[in-house]
Amino acid sequence: MAVAYIQEFPIENRSTENYDWVAEQIGRGPFDGLICHTAGFDDQDNVFRIFDVWETREQGERFLAERVQPLVDAGPESFPDPSNFTPPVREGFYELHDIVK
């Protein structure tokens, strides 16, 4: 069953430097099971939101563990803008009732 994955980071400034760096390190895919990836500012909720749709939760979790977490584990000093390295205020998966491709 398809799942959504969401991360929200508080807007400290409108820089996407760290996000862009992570995206460059990870590459553009294709990634096993990824249906759709989005990222952008939600000024109403004052967050930078990442929203992905995965074929299965296991595929999403594997991608995060293998591709994203090693970059995060390296610590803020490894990012181009360490002062803007913040943990997400919201993060998680949920099952989707419907998806249209």
Describe the structure.
It is a single chain. The protein has 101 residues and is an alpha+beta fold. 27% of the residues lie in helices and 31% in strands. The protein is built from 2 helices and 4 strands, in the order βαββαβ. Strands 2-3-1-4 form a 4-stranded antiparallel sheet. A hairpin with a 4-residue loop joins strand 2 (34-42) and strand 3 (47-54). The longest helix has 17 residues, at 57-73. The radius of gyration is 14 Å and the shape is globular. It starts with a strand and ends in a 6-residue tail after the last strand.
Sequence-ordered SSE layout with sheet pairings:
Layout: E1 3-10, H1 17-26, E2 34-42, E3 47-54, H2 57-73, E4 90-95
Antiparallel strand pairs: 1-3, 1-4, 2-3
Strand content: 25-35%
* Overall pLDDT metric: 96
State the helicity in percent bands.
25-40%
Extract low-pLDDT stretches: none
Order of helices and strands: EHEEHE
Overall radius of gyration: 14 Å
Helix count equals 2
| Approximate shape | globular
Task: Walk across the major sheet and give the strand order.
Answer: 2-3-1-4
User: Which structural class is indicated by helix and strand composition?
Assistant: alpha+beta
- Largest sheet geometry: 4 strands, antiparallel
First-last Cα distance: 14 Å
According to DSSP, the number of beta strands is 4
